[in-house]
Design brief:
Elements (H helix, E strand, L loop, with lengths): L7 E7 L3 H13 L2 E8 L6 H15 L5 E3 L13 H4 L21 H11 L4 E5 L4 H9 L1 H4 L4 E5 L15 H5 L1 H10 L3 E4 L12 H8 L3 H9 L1 H10 L8 H10 L4 E11 L10 E5 L15 E7 L1 H12 L1
Parallel strand pairs: 1-2, 1-4, 2-3, 4-5, 5-6, 6-9
Antiparallel strand pairs: 7-8, 7-9
Amino acid sequence: MLTNFERRKFIIDTDTASDDCAAIMMAVLSEKAEILGLTTVAGNIPLDKATNNALQTLEVCGADIPVFEGASHPLIRPLKTAVSVHGEDGLGDRGLVNPKGKAQTKPAVDFILDSVKKYPGDIEIIAIGPVTNIANAILTDPETMKKVKKIWSMGTAGFGFGNATPVAEFNVYVDAEAYKIMLDFGLPLTIIGFDICLGDSAFDRDDLEKLKNGNTCGKFIYECTKALHKFNLDCGNGDFVDLADAAAMGVVLYDDIVTEAVSCCCFCCTKEEEAYGQVIPYVIGKTYSVELPHFEQNCVMIKSIDSKLYKKHFFELFI
């Protein structure tokens, strides 16, 4: 087993609903990183519920990791949640949330900045919710945030369709102004879009049955994703559970699952209401038919993963 000194140092920024729960459990059970803390943000559900779910998730894992509360609302706009997808409590309204622990008193932004100051060049932030906390940290102390090693973002529609609007993915749509701040700041950034969790990477009934008969954490994921499964069935999306944050965490933890990644210059739309939250990826080196300005790379976008290998790694943790 790697020591804390040898392991990567993570901060997981989360609006803890069912797919966040799976992603957090992956990071904890894999033991590939020292998770310094979880920072919560309003998104899928209001902040207090996201915090309770983060605490509950860690308790199910038996993990002693601190939780810090962050932004209760986006930078400018009112909060729009996804309780219709994940349930009012974010974990399927199945009575799963009753944490014994409590969040730390230190605000999330202070924790992020203090951690980066303590470990300059070593902190990786895994953002699996709206990036309001990250934007607030950048606005509060940009010089310190320049010392973040890397940000991994589950956000954008990738090269596919959005799930909040036809062009916008939910995490960006909740706070596109914050996402634009993060993109424009210029930190090393890898984006895992919503398209990566679909198709063969989504969890069908056979996959869900494996979780149902899995270990304690696997069973918990099975239960807390039932509302998401029902949502997909009722909307005609399909008979599957799409765990976007788990797919993103798979990319973070297992570089062998990435089959194609491209350097991009991404622009986040915040002005036109119908396009709000759309992230447009201009692929570096690709020739477009209309002459465009010169673009500088501001992220790497994951274009495809080996779904079979991803699930192999996933189920090794949960069954």
